[in-house]
Amino acid sequence: MKIAFVGCGYVFDIYMRTRWAYPEIEICGVFDRDEKRAAVVHAHYGFPLYPDLGTLLADARVEVVINLTNIASHFAVTKAALEAGKHVFTEKPITTDLAATRELFAIAEAQGRVLAAAPCNLHSDAVSTVWKAVSDGAIGRPVLIYAEMDDNPAHLMRMDKVQSPTGAPFPYAEEFQEGCTIEHIGYHLAWLCAMFGPAVGVTAFSKSLVPDKNTPVPLAPPDTPDFSVACLDFANGVAARITCSWVAPRDHSMRIIGDAGQLTVDNAFHDQSPVFLERFSGVSLAARKAYSARSQPLIGRRFGIGGMRLKLVRRWKSYAVEAERGVGSSLKHRFVSWLRRREVYAQDKILGIAEMGKAIAEGRTQPMPPDFLMHLNEITLLVQQAGPDGRTVKPQTSFTPLAMFGDIATGQPDYRASHRPTFLERRLGRVVQSLQRR
């Protein structure tokens, strides 16, 4: 598959971290309206440069345009690429206007082209493991989800000092002006809707809590919500609460709670984040009442609190996030890259492009089809625009529930059958019951 990038800003280097794992994808060239930035990318990676967007779109070799421009440019660039007969993979959100997003999908359909979008963490090992465990009945019937997307107090982080490995500044102004919900809620919505189907009700609240983000340039507008909370009612009866903020300390965790247990994932930004399965027992639930058992994992796990760590599902490109090549070679860069993958986050952003290309080549429906992406787009905007007065609405969009991807469903562990209670759970059941009686 032959592709070309439009936009070479901060996120471009994140895409490049796993490029080495995709020899089947050829990058024909890149374009950025900032000529100096484009020159840096050319010098570092060696990609040919297009002098303008028109030249890129006129290149007959290019099959897919990757739109990494700022959000305000998403619509225009995606529209131009589709009308030029190219498939498009765009960063999230597709647009910040539902009617505009609908127009883009209509153009794609009329042109016989594919419009796909980030995020692609739906394909990660961690999310795949959760999906398989839920399907196996490992937690019984899923009923409740808590999903966090707190990204640290922005006003204390000096994000204007952050740069990518090739010197692209972190786009702090756009991040803060668009808001934490627009930028980040999709990471949770993608897996939630894939596993549990369309949301039929949304109750949301959003507010600006810390207007002064300590930025060198004043924000416009200065009061975009830096906090949002949304409760989603899914058609299959599951309820979920998603929280986003630029105010609270970093927390990207996920808890999927069933009537017989729960799955926990520490970091939605890490494709191989550990996944723990806790099957509820009288012992583990009683032990949770004890402070030491809750606060000391070495004690708590003996009673079943937190559960057992699951062997992750492995997919066709799982190895991509386990190394980084071609972005930086200095000792400092290699150390920071290793530390980031181990402790902070690891995302394979090329994976979404590759999954799109596989579906096109095989003539099958996209993993995240248009009606699915429209639904994610609408819910994102509903939550972002809820405001301090809040709102309860029924989404206009819906989609046919997705089937679990075939390579997850077959050839993987049965997480329910392989679970074993701890020694103390097996031995203390009657003791706990006797202690609870008068």
Task: Provide a quick synopsis of the model.
Helices cover 36% and strands 17% of the residues. It has 19 helices and 14 strands.
Can you give a write-up of this model?
This protein is of the alpha/beta class and 438 residues long. It is built from 19 helices and 14 strands. It has helices spanning 10-16, 35-45, 53-58, 74-83, 98-111, 125-135, 154-157, 172-178, 180-184, 186-196, 282-287, 291-295, 297-300, 331-344, 350-362, 370-384, 406-409, 423-427, 429-435; strands at residues 2-6, 26-31, 64-67, 87-90, 115-117, 142-150, 199-207, 227-234, 239-245, 254-258, 261-265, 275-279, 308-309, 391-393. The strands form two sheets. The protein has a nine-stranded mixed beta sheet with strand order 13-12-11-10-6-9-8-7-14. A five-stranded parallel beta sheet has the order 2-1-3-4-5, with helices on both faces. The longest helix has 15 residues, at 370-384. The termini are far apart.
Main sheet summary: 9 strands, mixed
The total count of strands amounts to 14
Structural class: alpha/beta
Low-pLDDT residue spans: none
Backbone shape = globular
In helices, the fraction of residues equals 25-40%
Going across the major beta sheet, what is the strand order? 13-12-11-10-6-9-8-7-14
Query: What is the radius of gyration?
Result: 23 Å
Distance between the termini: 70 Å
Total helix count?
Answer: 19
Q: Mean pLDDT, nearest integer?
A: 96
Q: What share of residues are in beta strands?
A: 15-25%
